Amino acid sequence: MQAPTLAGVKILSVVGARPQFVKLAPIARAAEDAGAEHVIVHTGQHYDPMLSEVFFTDLGIPDPDVHLGVGSGSHGVQTGAILSALDGVLDEHRPDWVLVYGDTNSTLAAALAAVKMHIRVAHLEAGLRSFNRAMPEEHNRVLTDHAADLLLAPTQVAIEHLAREGLAERSVLVGDVMTDVLYATRDAAAGDVGTLLAQAGLAPGGFYVATVHRAENTDDAARLRWIADALEALDKPVLLLAHPRLVARSAAAGITWGTGAVRLHEPLAYPELVAAVTASAGVVTDSGGLQKEAFLLRVPCTTVRTETEWVETVELGWNVLAQDAAAVREAVMRPRPPETDATPYGDGRAAERVVAELLRR
Ligand code: UD1
Fold first, then answer.
1. pLDDT score, position 1
2. Ligand 1 centroid to 345 CA: how many Å?
3. Which residues lie below 8 Å from residue 341, measured CB to CB, with a gap of 6+?
4. Which residue out of 123, 161, 213, 243 is catalytically annotated?
5. Among residues 121, 128, 181, which one has the least CA distance to residue 156?
6. Average pLDDT for residues 88-96, to the nearest whole number?
7. Taking Cα atoms as reference points, which of 79, 72, 62 lies closest to residue 21?
8. I need a labelling partner for 150 at 20 to 30 A (CA). Which of 134, 140, 247, 276 fits?
9. CA-CA distance, 35 to 62, in Å (whole number)?
10. Is 31 exposed, middle or buried (0-12, 13-18, 19+ CB in 10 A)?
11. CA 193, CA 199: separation in Å to the nearest integer?
């Protein structure tokens, strides 16, 4: 029997926000290797160069074929603008599969646009649940999973969530594509943060990396205040990589960063982020991706959230959830967790499996 080939199969990826560009990188490569036609649609949800363009350049992703340019807005306005703009794009390209990524407003809008046009949808990073209905991402995940034809799950836990929701038949465990891109970037030693560390007066192993951007943290002034207090009081300098949402909401809440231990910095490109985390003594974050990246690089992580989708990092001791300033401090100062060779996020070859599944079905 001949090996299957993807030639003639057309995949249309819809991406819009920073973590989706990272996940797109290994998929674009795997699709090309398999000879599939791959159309990339950028919704424009993220438009700042440091949240968008640099990922395409650094990770070797082909330029988007279509750019919707929707920009920022309330959830309804942003999701609706993407939804209505996609009709014409899907009609023009008529792909065999629309591939959607993660849990942003771009994900949900693209899944809806495709199912309504009877085009098959595959959801990459399916089955994640925080069980926190106050998170916009949780609605996006649940609704996208139930709309999609094929659920590409990153972990066994995600598969179990999907099975409990009656979605087992559409689900397949492929591993996590973020492992693919992280290993490739780490092995290429692509990022250099020597100059950045020198400029900020930071020594390798002598600082923490922090990010805060989730709505539940940035949009609650009291919560943002104690997070600032916690970071400012840490025992080592904190390189705080500030997402635009953090900058905007801090200004509105009258919070000034850059005092105490905190060194404010703009977001980093992906190779530099990987290098900075590798060189750090620990990570404090509310980002899903960064929790996993810290684990894969074996850097202890403290997560400023009430729950996490990436429960494996907590179970293995590499991630601790912290609910107040004292808990953040205690978690950051904890002893290094026991070493582990567990691979809950796959072997770094998830993208190949994703593309093979799209062909097989
Ligand atoms: C979005 C995702 C979130 C993901 C995050 C990654 C949703 C509901 N949320 O959150 O799941 O973790 O991306 O970063 O889709 N802004 C800029 N420049 C930009 C983009 C945004 O200045 O390029 C500002 C705007 O003021 C905007 C705010 O940041 O209102 C928030 O951006 P938005 O895309 O709505 O959500 P994120 O917080 O980035």
1. 35
2. 25
3. none
4. 213
5. 128
6. 98
7. 62
8. 134
9. 15
10. buried
11. 10
Q: What integer is the mean pLDDT of 93-108?
A: 98
Up-side HSE of residue 203: CA atoms within 13 Å toward CB?
2
Confidence band of 7 (pLDDT split at 50, 70, 90): low
What distance in Å separates the CA atoms of residue 314 and residue 295, rounded to the nearest whole number? Answer: 10
Six-digit token string for 237: 């300098």
| C-alpha atoms less than 13 angstroms from C-alpha of 341 in its C-beta half-sphere | 0
How many beta carbons lie within 10 A of that of residue 187, not counting itself? 9
Q: Which domains does the chain possess?
A: 10-176+346-360 (3.40.50.2000), 188-332 (3.40.50.2000)
198-204: average pLDDT: 93
Count CA within 13 A, CB hemisphere, residue 127: 27
| Tens-place pLDDT, residues 148-191 | 999 999 999 999 999 999 999 999 999 999 999 999 999 998 88
Section 334-343 average pLDDT:
96
C-alpha span between 71 and 340 (Å, rounded) = 42
Neighbouring C-alpha atoms within 13 Å toward the C-beta of 72 = 5
Asked about 213 being catalytic, the answer comes back as: yes
Model pLDDT for residues 257-276, shown as the tens digit of each residue: 988 999 999 999 999 999 99
Which residues have C-beta atoms less than 6 Å from ligand 1?
Answer: 17-19, 45-48, 51, 72, 103-105, 136-137, 213, 243-245, 248
Q: Could you tell me the end-to-end alpha-carbon distance of the chain, in angstroms, rounded to an integer?
A: 17
